[in-house]
Every structure is written in C-alpha cells, then in structure tokens.
Specification:
This protein is 40% helix and 16% strand. By secondary structure, it is an alpha/beta fold. Strand 7, helix 8 and strand 8 form a beta-alpha-beta unit. Helix 4 packs parallel to helix 10 and helix 5 packs across helix 9. Its EC number is 2.6.1.-. This is Aminotransferase. It catalyses: L-aspartate + 2-oxoglutarate = oxaloacetate + L-glutamate.
C-alpha cells in the first residue's frame, strides 16, 4: 500500500486542472502572450493598493468579522443599488476568500452527500470539482452549439432534474462560452427552480462584461421575488484586476447567515481585514477603472474575433458577455494537444477546451482582457498558425 492509497477517494478523484497544465508547461517563456487564464494584464490600481497598505501598516492584522467588516458589506449594498437598482441590506452579504470559495461554501450549504447539482457545459471546471468534493453528484446539461452560438435548451434542463436535485448552477455570462442568458431565459429558469423546489446558485461574476445595449447583463436580481431560493457567488478578481487578492462574496437570504458564517469559520475564519479595506475602496471608487477594463475587453474582443473569423477556418462569433473567445478551429479535434502545439509554435498560451467538460473537446479558450496591441499580435500569430494547418 502506498501513502496515496490511504487518502480519501474523493480527494484522489479531484483532477489536475487542464488549464494549469498548459500554464505550467509554458510559463516563463520569452515572448509569451498568455491568454490562458481568466485575468487581465493590468495590475490592481494604486488607489486600491494604498487603502490596503495603509490598513496593513496601521495594524489591521487581527481576527475580524467572519461575515466581512461592516464597511465592506455596506459598500456591497451600495454597489448593488448602483449597478442593479436593488436595495439589499447588509445582512445579505458575506465576504469570502475568493469567488472560488464563495462557490465551494454555497455548494456545501445547498447539498449533502448523494444529492445532485446541475450545471451547464462547457463550464469553468472548478464548479464540477467543488460539487464532487462536497460529496454531491455533478449533473451536466450541455449547451447546444449552433451557427457559432451557444444555446440553452430549457426542456433539457428541466428533464435533468430528479428527486435528488438540490440546485442548479447557472453561470451567465458564461466562462468559457460567452453564453449570456436573456431576461426571458432567467424567468424560465427561475420558474423551473420554483416548480421543483430547488435552489439556484448564480455565478454572475462577469455581469458587467456585457457587450449588448445595456450596461450589464440580465441578472436573476431583475426577475426574482422575495422568498426565491437564489444564492449569488461573486469576486473582486475580474472587475478591479484583483485576481491575486483572493477576495469574493456571497449574496444570500439573511436566513442563511449563521450557516454561511459557520462555514467561513471552519474554512478560513474570515478574510484579512487590510485586504477588505482595499475591497471597500474598489467598490466605492472603482467604477471608472471597471469601465476602462470593459473598454479594453471590448476593443480586444473585436480585434481577436475579427481576425480569426477572417481566416474562414475558425468557427465562432463575438461573445455576448464575459472575457473569452471560445474557438473551434477546422481540423482540430484534440484541444489539449493543440494548446501544447500552439504555445510551442506561436508563443500564444490558450486554454484547451478539454478542461471545460462536455462539449468543449474541439475548442480553445482565449482571454481577451488585455492591451489591444498585444491582442492584435496574438491574433496575427494565431491566424498564421490556423492558415498553415
């Protein structure tokens, strides 16, 4: 018997990240254009860093509120009033150590071992592992890929619900596909959840990265009513270039408050107070920076997608939301091997669609939240690669 044989089967079954595999393969190469991870190329802005630094130097290094410091929960309430036109008292907000932890704790709260949680695929792989590590069963409902667009079949979603189903995980705008639920989609999903008495775990991290007519994507907050069983997971990572900070939040009915506080206590015992000070400033003073990030993403999305579509060998359309072009290149069936080949031959790092579950195999994901000039360079390298196949 080896040491591994004595570990939990649940832990042993957790897969290596297919995204991180490519990152580790090519990290540090000269001339690399890394489009594999879901982050931009701008560092956290100084006004956020200064607030955290001043709090750190001022001695804010002790245990703190497990639900989040009052000032941050109040700032979150203001943020939702400003961007979603809803008044949510502070009792709805719980600060977590990343959006990933927000999802993991929500899964733990909503499911027990043997329960089922439905997710839409292709999807960010971490949600599947979060469900499986909690002892629940992850149930895939594939999106359909038609004429370059991803479509949700609502009948297929409802038919996947069984007596063991406890929740639906809905990520919109979607990582990696860019699929964005319409208001009508959200109403229909919510009605399905009500009929079956299941929760919705809504990942709306990319809500502000929306390329439609309005300033943000449709949200369950637009259509839900008091008493609806909806929990939201979110993060400071994308909007304010704070990926390395690992700070996120949960929005949930106040009745869940003590349960969520307990889960935070027994995982991290709260987020460092000085980091929360930076998060307060991000929310209250960061709207202009968010708009700058969105403008960069919009310009770079157009540059990358236009160039690749012009090769006539890439099947995709410009995504409605989020930060990713999900590309299907003629002749490529194994995206893992293709990602390794592309980084070797072009110096452009892409995430393989194999990492994103059912439906992702022939696709590659490129994050376009970067300097448009760098994206133009990446688009030229990738176009040359595609034409040479």
């Amino acid at each position: 018997m080896t040491l591994l044989d004595s570990l939990s089967p649940r832990a042993l079954a957790a897969p290596e990240s297919g995204i991180v595999e490519i990152i580790n393969y090519a990290r540090g190469r000269d001339g690399l254009l890394p489009l594999w991870a879901g982050e931009g190329d701008l560092p956290t802005p100084d006004f956020i860093n200064r607030s955290a630094s001043e709090a750190l130097l001022g001695g804010e290094t002790f245990y703190t509120w497990q639900r989040g410091i009052p000032e941050l929960r109040q700032a979150l309430s203001r943020y939702y009033q400003r961007h979603f036109a809803v008044h949510l008292p502070v009792e709805h907000f719980y600060v977590t150590a990343s959006g990933m932890q927000a999802i993991a704790l929500a899964v733990q709260a909503l499911t027990s071992p043997g329960d089922e949680m439905i997710y839409l695929s292709p999807c960010w792989p971490n949600i599947v592992s979060a469900i499986d590590l909690a002892g629940a069963k992850s149930v895939c409902v594939p999106l359909s890929f038609t004429d370059g667009r991803w479509v949700l079949d609502l009948d297929r979603l409802e038919k996947a619900i069984t007596p063991k189903t406890k929740a639906l995980f809905i990520n919109t705008p979607s990582n990696p596909t860019g699929w964005t639920a319409s208001r009508e989609d959200l109403i229909a999903i919510l009605e399905i959840a009500r009929r079956h008495g299941v929760w919705i775990l809504a990942d709306e991290i990319y809500a502000l990265y929306y390329y439609g007519a309005s300033e943000r994507a449709p949200s369950f907050l637009d259509v839900m009513e008091e008493g609806d069983k909806v929990v939201f997971a979110n993060s400071f990572s994308k909007n304010w270039s704070m990926t390395g900070w690992r700070v996120g939040w949960i929005v949930a009915p106040p009745e869940l408050g003590q349960v969520l506080e307990n889960l935070i206590q027994y995982s991290t015992s709260g987020v460092a107070q000085f980091m929360q000070r930076g998060a307060v400033v991000a929310l209250d003073q960061g709207d202009d920076f968010v708009r700058e990030n969105i403008a960069r993403a919009t310009a770079s999305r157009d540059i990358l997608c236009d160039a690749l579509i012009a090769t006539n060998r890439v099947e995709t359309l410009k995504p409605e939301g989020a930060l990713y072009a999900f590309l299907k290149i003629d002749g490529i069936t194994d995206s893992r091997q293709a990602a390794l080949d592309i980084v070797d031959k072009t110096g452009v790092g892409l995430a393989p669609g194999t990492a994103f579950g059912e439906g992702g195999l022939p696709f590659l994901r490129a994050c376009f939240l970067r300097n448009p000039a760098h994206i133009a360079d990446a688009a030229e390298r990738l176009s040359s690669y595609v034409k040479a196949l």
